[in-house]
């Protein structure tokens, strides 16, 4: 890979340990994937924030980098393992909280903005169309590539961090226009009615197209919440972190539907629900906000919970960014939700919080949330917002 004089200097250690280490990571990746050069990035989103996933080895790695590492571009974080301000409310142990705070301290020292969210595009880390970025979290990467039209590979935590210290990333994969050409036509012939249907659709398409880039036709209208749910699901269950929706997502007008074609029918959606759902009655955990809730979703939950009480046998979480929670505070949604017995889980989520062994079954609007909850040994129910809130109130799925 070609390096400029400046990049050679960084690789030689003239800007310190963190930059040198980062250049080593970036050049190694560039050489493996055949990048010709490094390209400037407009922003970075770093995954690998939860102490639950990092452990002591990860914490030590971050502390080493934090000794002299300072990010060169706007950098935000993926969810951590707990609500950074109110972890006790989520029944996180003191030992875990202490370690998680050390992780956050290391990131803060690096100059990273402590916004722990997988929807950075809702809180100010919003790339421009065509901009090169280095983001990590799969749903956010898919949203950035497909809905915004920015360009990013799905970075690992260390390579994203390296891009933040250098301000550049190797130019390969989805940074190149020729690697962003759709290669399979998905014709949608199913009816989508509720938010969770978009997660089920992501499951169907992810499974059908595997590692290809889908060009989806047959969608007339879609909102932001549906798109973020679809992004999370389609990449979790199969495809590359890029898709096109004809007439909806940027760049779709520049491509014709590819020759290879699959269809998605109502029956496929039904099969998806069957595959994602377990046979379960009692629900002891309900989580809305995978990806993190928008203010519109929080408003809908607040409306559904007016004059209701969450079952004493069920824990109800709204996972969102701290900024979104502040907006919810101002608009009175927080009060309604907390009065009903719900809890805000800011800065964290159902996949990266240390939940193993705490709950037996979860109801959620998120197909991706179901995937990760099974890893936490929970039985899963995917449903609409209304169904999930009802499950939280009754303590069971009906
Ligand atoms: Fe976000 Fe966690 Fe879901 S990172 S997409 S809320 S699994």
Tell me briefly what this model is:
By secondary structure, this protein is α/β, with parallel strands linked by helices. Helix content is 41%, strand content 13%. It has a 5-stranded parallel beta sheet, sandwiched between helices. It has a 4-stranded parallel beta sheet with strand order 8-7-6-9.
Protein model, in words:
The strands form 4 sheets. This protein has a 5-stranded parallel sheet with strand order 12-11-10-13-14, sandwiched between helices. Helices cover 41% and strands 13% of the residues. The model has no long low-confidence stretch (mean pLDDT 97). Helix 5 (138-148) crosses helix 8. The protein has helices at residues 5-11, 17-33, 51-66, 94-109, 138-148, 157-166, 195-209, 224-236, 266-276, 295-305, 322-331, 333-339, 367-375, 385-394, and strands at 38-40, 43-46, 74-77, 134-135, 168-170, 184-188, 214-217, 244-245, 261-264, 285-288, 315-320, 343-346, 361-364, 379-382. Helix 7 links the parallel strand 6 and strand 7. With 398 residues, it is an alpha/beta fold. The radius of gyration is 21 Å and the shape is globular. It binds FE3-S4 cluster. The site of FE3-S4 cluster has 16 residues, from helix 13.
């Amino acid at each position: 890979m070609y390096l400029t004089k400046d990049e050679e200097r960084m690789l030689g250690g003239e800007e310190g340990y963190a930059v040198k280490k980062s250049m080593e990571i970036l050049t190694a990746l560039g050489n493996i994937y055949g990048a010709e050069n490094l390209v400037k990035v407009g922003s970075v989103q770093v995954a690998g924030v939860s102490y639950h996933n990092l452990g002591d080895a990860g914490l030590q790695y971050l502390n080493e980098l934090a000794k002299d590492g300072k990010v060169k571009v706007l950098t935000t974080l993926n969810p951590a393992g707990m609500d950074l301000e109110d972890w006790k409310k989520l029944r996180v142990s003191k030992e875990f909280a202490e370690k998680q705070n050390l992780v956050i301290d290391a990131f803060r020292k690096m100059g990273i903005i402590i916004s722990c969210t997988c929807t950075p595009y809702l809180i100010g880390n919003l790339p421009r169309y065509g901009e090169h970025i280095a983001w990590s979290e799969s749903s956010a990467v898919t949203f950035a590539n497909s809905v915004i039209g920015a360009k990013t590979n799905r970075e690992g935590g260390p390579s994203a961090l390296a891009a933040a210290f250098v301000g550049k990333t190797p130019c390969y994969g989805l940074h190149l226009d020729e690697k962003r050409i759709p290669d399979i036509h998905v014709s949608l012939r199913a009816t989508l009615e509720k938010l969770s249907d978009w997660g089920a659709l992501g499951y169907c398409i992810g499974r059908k197209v595997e590692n290809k880039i889908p060009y989806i036709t047959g969608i007339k209208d879609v909102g932001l919440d549906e798109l973020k749910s679809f992004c999370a699901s389609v990449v979790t269950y199969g495809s590359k972190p890029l898709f096109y929706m004809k007439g909806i997502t940027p760049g779709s007008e520049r491509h014709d539907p590819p020759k290879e074609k699959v269809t998605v029918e109502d029956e496929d959606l039904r099969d998806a629900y069957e595959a994602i759902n377990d046979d379960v009655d009692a629900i002891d955990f309900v989580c809305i906000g995978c990806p993190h809730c928008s203010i519109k979703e929080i408003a809908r939950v607040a409306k559904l919970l007016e004059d209701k009480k969450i079952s004493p046998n069920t824990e109800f979480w709204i996972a969102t960014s701290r900024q979104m929670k502040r907006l919810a505070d101002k608009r009175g949604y927080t009060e309604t939700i907390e009065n009903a017995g719900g809890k805000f889980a800011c800065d964290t989520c159902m996949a990266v919080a240390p939940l193993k062994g705490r709950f037996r079954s979860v109801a959620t609007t998120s197909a991706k949330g179901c995937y990760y909850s099974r890893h936490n040994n929970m039985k899963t129910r995917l449903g609409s917002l209304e169904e999930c809130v009802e499950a939280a109130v009754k303590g069971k799925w009906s």
